Amino acid sequence: MAKTNPGRFFEDYALGDVITHAVPRTVSGGERALYHALYPARHALASSDAFAQACGLPASPLDDLAAFHVVFGKTVPDISLNALANLGYAEGRWLRPVWPGDTLRSVSEVIGIKQNSNGKSGVVWVRTTGLNQHDEAVLEYVRWVMVRKNDHDLPAPETVLPELRNTVPANRLVIPEGLDFTDYDFALAGEPHRWGDYEVGEQIDHVDGVTIEEAEHMLATRLWQNTAKVHFDATNRDDGKRLIYGGHVISMARALSFNGLANAQMIIALNGGAHANPCFAGDTVRAWSEVLDKAETTAPGVGAIRLRLVATKGGAPFQLRGDDGKYLPDVLLDLDYWALMPL
Amino acid sequence: MAKTNPGRFFEDYALGDVITHAVPRTVSGGERALYHALYPARHALASSDAFAQACGLPASPLDDLAAFHVVFGKTVPDISLNALANLGYAEGRWLRPVWPGDTLRSVSEVIGIKQNSNGKSGVVWVRTTGLNQHDEAVLEYVRWVMVRKNDHDLPAPETVLPELRNTVPANRLVIPEGLDFTDYDFALAGEPHRWGDYEVGEQIDHVDGVTIEEAEHMLATRLWQNTAKVHFDATNRDDGKRLIYGGHVISMARALSFNGLANAQMIIALNGGAHANPCFAGDTVRAWSEVLDKAETTAPGVGAIRLRLVATKGGAPFQLRGDDGKYLPDVLLDLDYWALMPL
Amino acid sequence: MAKTNPGRFFEDYALGDVITHAVPRTVSGGERALYHALYPARHALASSDAFAQACGLPASPLDDLAAFHVVFGKTVPDISLNALANLGYAEGRWLRPVWPGDTLRSVSEVIGIKQNSNGKSGVVWVRTTGLNQHDEAVLEYVRWVMVRKNDHDLPAPETVLPELRNTVPANRLVIPEGLDFTDYDFALAGEPHRWGDYEVGEQIDHVDGVTIEEAEHMLATRLWQNTAKVHFDATNRDDGKRLIYGGHVISMARALSFNGLANAQMIIALNGGAHANPCFAGDTVRAWSEVLDKAETTAPGVGAIRLRLVATKGGAPFQLRGDDGKYLPDVLLDLDYWALMPL
Q1: Which part of chain B is CATH 3.10.129.10?
Q2: Left, alpha or beta for B7 (phi > 0: left; psi -120 to 50: alpha)?
Q3: pLDDT greater than 70 at residue B293
Q4: Domain spanning B6-27+62-152: which CATH class is it, in words?
Q5: Sites in chain C below the pLDDT cut of 70
Q6: Which 170-229 residues of chain A touch chain B by CB within 8 A?
Q7: What are the TM regions of this chain, as residue ranges (chains A, B, C) (predicted)?
Q8: What is residue A151's predicted lDDT score, i.e. its pLDDT?
């Protein structure tokens, strides 16, 4: 009878279910302009048609994370509306750039399921694919969430744990067709440091900080049509706070990382990530990175660099976990990704 | 001598006056992106070119309310700058979709006038038409406002009360050319409920709430080039509050109504509406709807549904008026409109 | 070793240096929509393709100040990251309209240098040029900043003071190709006052005020990819305040000046400007103008008008300096520019 969407509970998922997520979305120069207004984003490839064309692309693609947020946002009503926790990401790969004018939609498949021992909740793993208007996959990733069980009397499903790679191997990275960094313009890109200048283990403090306002994170989150009430309704929590969408922190940290990683032009894979602590308006977000790995690619002049990106709301850079092995309270995000960088 | 616009007073209107409103505006994907950032808007037809094309349209039109706000915003300097109250709407009809790239302008005709008995103010009725760059009407509506009289000694004009329909009759609804819901994709649209699933008298609580920030309503109101100072200048009222543009509440409530009315795709007529109480930053807006009527249309697979949309800032849903017949203090908006829905 | 950009210090500039600024930017309808959302901008030429075409242009250009902000924003990491003060502007000229789809980049040449007598800082003059994707100059201006010296032991450079005009002479104004105000539509533009209606010495109070929010000035400043931390990081100053980008005040004041100067359609030259006092969130910005000069142009129906634009955060209009000759504390901006107006 009720016409509104109550969200799915743990018992509403079964292994192999394929969920078509609602509300396809056409993106344009408007999404690009807003992305630049919401984040201090300056990576040249996502800023300039002329720069992208000099790198072999037909035009400047939508920022990789903007594409991620659009695809992710569509999954919220089906995957995380009743989620108790967003537990992790794995095997994320960008498969094709998103251009202004493209229409994106999302599909998810349930690839793992496990009821918790308390019988009141469980963990669901889904592999989500973002598709464009030509039914070409632009993005895929796995995420797993802890979801409430509505009817505790229902039997537990058979546990199936998906086999997930800890890291996307370099030979599985998909380089955008035509990408060529042979004539890369380092002056226009903003920094002289190339792939060979970064060493595995190197840490970079990105220096700048941004204090977040309620209006900004709500604008950003709505832009991706993620309408989960925790982000918008100040009456939802006892403390009157609105929880900031974790993706907002990812984009803020990535944009801040321009200062020191201006040439890490495209995010091409998401190996894993944790939203270590919640972020609220008034927090001042800072970021630091660590080089985890490097790899060559088959594209001319293009190297791959694997980075840890950490966002904090205080404390010194390069501090991640306490003696107990847990994230320090000022750590907001611990993200592990591959980017493309000129050799 | 003064170069600035003092706005019109009651004595500046005469029956039959035709007012050309200033500042035509070209809309683009930028306005669409901002609309999605400002409101939790998810109706698929205004979100996706591919979805709109599958419904027989050449592209995704600008959200119907965005078109309304652009047309309305232009009228503010001429109609409501000195208004004491925005009294009502009637006979609103969307006549043609607005596409990115269109340029809109507005014209109003004075169709009714009545001086108040106190001699210090009066009511003016205008019929406003929004036109595109081909001089085609895209939208028309009547609104009436109470306006201050500047020179109380001037004689009262002859009272003329326009004859206005309480409701736009279903046979006067203008369906966008080509619209066809025969192959409507309910999964992509977000809900399975079709026209036949809604009953006259049915009430729907849209569940979600959005807490409004000053920055957001000011961005929205400026986007429509509505620059009335009450919305922007915190020094304008003794209490330091900025009054939120009533259209912001309309769009917020309409977007919230996606949850339960995802298939009420296009607003096609505005039968009436009242801004029951003022809205201020910090208010958490919620919405509920009531099905008032249903009608068939001549377009394939397309039904019409007449809805009451109520926005509140607290209280229980489905409470509208007190024992005295007046709107309850938590009611912000009471809107009566026709939408199009797949059969 | 450090990968992050520490900014340039005084000793890093030498006369004749040419600096290629990073991060070219493609603009679209998204930037235009955001400009209208951020400022109460209503000048018809930058709002409507149809209006612009009726004035002989191929389309509506990006607002002149939006073009300025894009060009200026790129220079911040190289010119003003370590600036102690933004001392002045001169010889600014708009050379060519910026159209949606254009890609802008910026280049600066050091044209003057002078170490301060304290040996700890100095003044650097640069002439910045904004270029489009065809390497055509769209904008040029001189600004000078006081910059910290990092190594006080280094010798002072030879002082070179550039010769700068106090005012761009009318015969050096560059009128956009094709501009023709012969059939200018004053009703659509919003005011009847033409070039001949303004007298040198005339002062106009623009009446309206806008109270500024943190979220808004940060969105605006990021949109121009100006990421100087003083604008974003509330922990950067002892008082927890974020300094508002001076360009935000310029755009706000210019937009407010529509009310009284609706026909001052294009800013065509920047003669000078001072950010008299800092602006912070919560300030209510108002504006007044004074006609400084008038000139004819060679374009049909097009006159030039030189205006002083003053932004304030309080106090009465038309008050600029105290008895000591200093700007009054409520004055935020004193700008001197040429605009184009129909005869």
Answers
A1: 6-27+62-152, 192-343
A2: left
A3: yes
A4: alpha beta
A5: 1
A6: 213-216, 218-220, 222-223, 225, 227, 229
A7: none
A8: 95
